[in-house]
Write a structure and sequence with these properties.
19 helices; alpha/beta; Serine Threonine Protein Phosphatase 5, Tetratricopeptide repeat; 2 domains; 369 residues
Length: 369
């Protein structure tokens, strides 16, 4: 078998082309929600999801060991890398890379992680930690809070990580953030983080979203005892200091952007309120209410794939397939490989008896998938 290599001219082209976005997804930091937002921007065949452990993931994830075996040519076609990975993937890609990530208050993240494990009782993490504990306080008392979880992922690869002490890991993580990360957001300031990403990454639309993979039935940070919070911070290593460092950096960036940042933030909050309420109304078959809410969201942001898709679905439910088709086609225009919009077009056309046109979109759907 011949491995396809890049020519020198191709190497120069890819080095100077649009950078690859690398999303370092730290567990329980709203990463699933952000991942869904980001993937709408890229064609599916240019996205790769990496992991070192398939236990919590699905067949669409690629092991790091398999990624490293890809040819230079295959790597050069990647536009978006995401996953529970260490910082440093740029060393293995021919294109320039820009990193983003989200951090979370280490106390709040520890609570979320414990209750996430309680919902995933077949995992080895559950069996080796939470299953051995009476409750969350016992989990903390037994020392099961992972040290330097966030600092470690942003620090370096595993080999060097193990040779560093807490302070050295923290220094490496801060340096990497300042040198390589285009933006670092905070879970506790998620909407502000989206505006920061929008500006830094040059998005031409406001992102809308529904929260995903949210851990339910868990206490709030404020409900923990002072002693429990102290023990978590003690076990977390440099994560608390890294969080405070990024929080201050975030404050400085927002302040520098001025009043226009606040205006965009207000628009985003209004938009997502309309969108989420509209989806809820649609799901309970209250199509008139859904139409009013989603139409108002569309007037604020007509370039959203999600809003066009749901508005098309509402129009169809209200007996207006022509308006529905218009919005499904709008979504495809924004991203020609958006599987949801393509499927909606195909099903709608088929229901109207336009089978030849429907088959065209079904063939597109195969490519999108």
């Amino acid at each position: 078998m011949t491995v396809q290599m890049l020519t020198q001219a191709e190497k120069i082209f890819f080095t100077n082309s649009e950078p690859v976005l690398v999303f370092v997804h730290i567990r329980k930091t709203a990463g699933t929600t952000l991942k869904r937002i980001l993937e709408k921007t890229y064609h599916r065949d240019t996205i790769i999801t990496l992991t070192d452990n398939l236990e919590f993931n699905d067949i669409n994830h690629t092991l790091m060991s398999d990624f490293l075996k890809l040819s230079e040519y295959d790597k050069a076609n990647i536009r978006f890398v995401r996953g529970h990975i260490q910082f440093g993937i740029h060393r293995y890609l021919p294109n320039r890379c820009e990193y983003i990530t989200l951090l979370r208050d280490p106390v709040d993240r520890a609570v979320s992680w414990y209750y996430f494990l309680l919902q995933n009782t077949e995992s080895s993490d559950y069996k080796n930690t939470a299953a051995l504990c009476r409750d969350f306080d016992d989990f903390v008392e037994k020392g099961f809070i992972r040290r330097d979880t966030q600092t470690g992922q942003l620090c370096t690869d595993d080999q060097l990580y193990n040779s560093l002490n807490d302070n050295e890991r923290l220094i490496h993580a801060k340096n990497n953030i300042d040198r390589y990360f285009t933006a670092v957001g905070l879970v506790e300031r998620f909407e502000e983080s989206l505006i920061l990403f929008k500006r830094k990454l040059g998005w031409n639309h406001f992102p809308v979203y529904l929260n995903e993979n949210v851990t339910k039935k868990r206490p709030k940070k404020e409900e923990l005892s002072a002693e429990t919070r102290r023990k978590i911070l003690e076990q977390s290593g440099g994560d608390a200091q890294l969080y405070e460092y990024v929080n201050q950096r975030f404050d400085d960036e927002v302040k520098a952007m001025g009043f226009s940042f606040q205006r965009e933030l207000e628009t985003l909050r209004r938009l997502n309120s309309l969108y989420s309420q509209g989806v809820e109304a649609y799901n309970r078959d209250d199509f008139d209410t859904a139409f009013d809410l989603i139409k108002a969201a569309y007037e604020l942001e007509p370039n959203s794939i999600e809003i066009n898709n749901i508005l098309g679905a509402v129009h169809y439910a209200k007996g207006d397939p022509i308006s529905a088709l218009k919005h499904f086609l709008n979504a495809i225009k924004i991203n020609p490989l958006n599987a949801d919009a393509i499927a909606n077009c195909a099903k709608l056309l088929s229901s109207l008896g336009h089978h030849e046109e429907a088959n065209y979109y079904y063939s597109m759907l195969n490519k999108a998938n």
